[in-house]
Amino acid sequence: MNNPLAISAVQWNSELIKRHDMAGPRYTSYPTALQFNESLNADSLISSAKCSLNQQQPLSLYFHIPFCAHVCYYCACNKVITRQRSRSEPYLATLYKEMQFMADHFSGDRQVNQLHWGGGTPTFLNNQQIIDLMAKTAELFNLRDDDLGDYSIEIDPRECDLTTLQVLRKVGFNRISLGIQDVNEKVQIAVNRVQPVEEIALLIKQAKELAFKSINVDLIYGLPHQTLATFEDTLTQVIEMSVDRLSVFNYAHMPNRFRAQRHIQDADLPSPEQKLAIQQLIIDKLTAAGYVYIGMDHFAKPTDSLSIAQEKGYLHRNFQGYTTHSDCDLVAMGVSAISQIGDLYYQNSHQLSVYTDLIKSKQCAIIKGVQLSADDKIRRDLITQLICHFYLDINEFSKKHNIEFKQYFAQEILELEKLAVDHLLIIDQQQLTITAAGRMLVRRICMVFDAYMDKQKLKQSFSRII
Description:
By secondary structure, the chain is of the alpha/beta class. It has two domains: 1-31 and 373-466, Arc Repressor Mutant, subunit A (Orthogonal Bundle); 33-332, tm_1862 like domain (pyruvate-formate lyase- activating enzyme). Helices cover 39% and strands 20% of the residues. The protein has helices at 14-20, 42-52, 88-106, 127-140, 162-171, 185-190, 197-209, 228-241, 272-288, 305-312, 352-362, 374-389, 394-401, 405-408, 410-421, 442-447, 458-461; strands at 59-65, 67-68, 80-81, 111-119, 142-143, 150-155, 175-181, 214-221, 245-250, 292-295, 298-300, 316-318, 321-323, 329-333, 338-341, 344-348, 366-371, 391-393, 425-427, 431-434. Strands 1, 4, 5, 6, 7, 8, 9, 10, 11 and 14 form a ten-stranded mixed sheet that branches. It has a three-stranded antiparallel sheet with strand order 15-16-17, covered by helices on one side. A three-stranded antiparallel sheet has the order 18-20-19. Helix 3 (88-106) packs parallel to helix 4 (127-140) and helix 8 (228-241) runs parallel beside helix 9.
């Protein structure tokens, strides 16, 4: 079904954003990871997952490579900082054991339509290790050989050159995501991530020449020493590189939770007013350059598969962000990795030593998870629809889940009506529509349907919406 709101404009309204901005989940899953239960043991989770999966569905694979040679002060990812490249060898040996276990339980010759390496820094691995890991994946799982899957990898431009790009393309990767964050040297020094823009531009040019299908760039606003003028220059230079997608994230400064962020001084951060001005600049400049606002932090060219999926009505969202593969079970491997199999989510240990010991002893490092209830599945479907398409056909949704929408969500509708007064959404008997002004606040709207929402824990658990 085509999305009736596809490619429509997003409208910036500073007053509404100030009024409704608050901490909230990013909804890469529902329930969120906060609801994962440590009392559920790995055996029961695996058994339940095997019962709920559909063997006809394709797979999405995720591999977490936690190592980084340098610490980036803004980073909140699960990572291991080390200059010892040899540490990757025992980690890969452990990962291979986990891969065998997961393949035995969940592969069944199911086609892998999506694959992603994240981190950390996946290109911390040397070229031979990259070749070996992909070869092992092909041995255990049914990888596509027609270049039609979405096989992507996160790249630190400081850890990649033409030879590595050639290796990545040869082993089957066809999408890359470059962590740039900002091209301003003063900002780069402040966050300990210095990378000349000329080297970034050359890497992107080489990737295009190697026929990578999609190139994404990550930027972050709210970093120390950023101003409206400096970030406009960053956007101008990135637009000139003509990448296919951009993810522009809001920096969440939580030094009490993330030790590396203690290197960043509060006084060097842009004020809330400056951040709002930068966010408006991002919207205005990228849409003026022809990029489609997909949602939240993401933009894509109209010809990109994300834009097409949103227009056609099949865009989806999972732990990897926005995706076109709504029909895949996600099998995730490596330290801290989160899987979604059927109606279950489960997560590996965050601690490398614990992960390693668990894999050695029983080939499985799962420490917590959650099995979705009938209500969870209804709310997950609704939140996914809104966050991907800004629109819900109430009659169709009611039939799909065999509910009477207005009765099932009676309390939520009262909350929605308050947001409707501010023109963030329109709701009637047939549909719920998020307006152009409401698109920037889609997380706030989705929170209305979150049955686990604890207003007291929001501030300490989640980043702000804007």
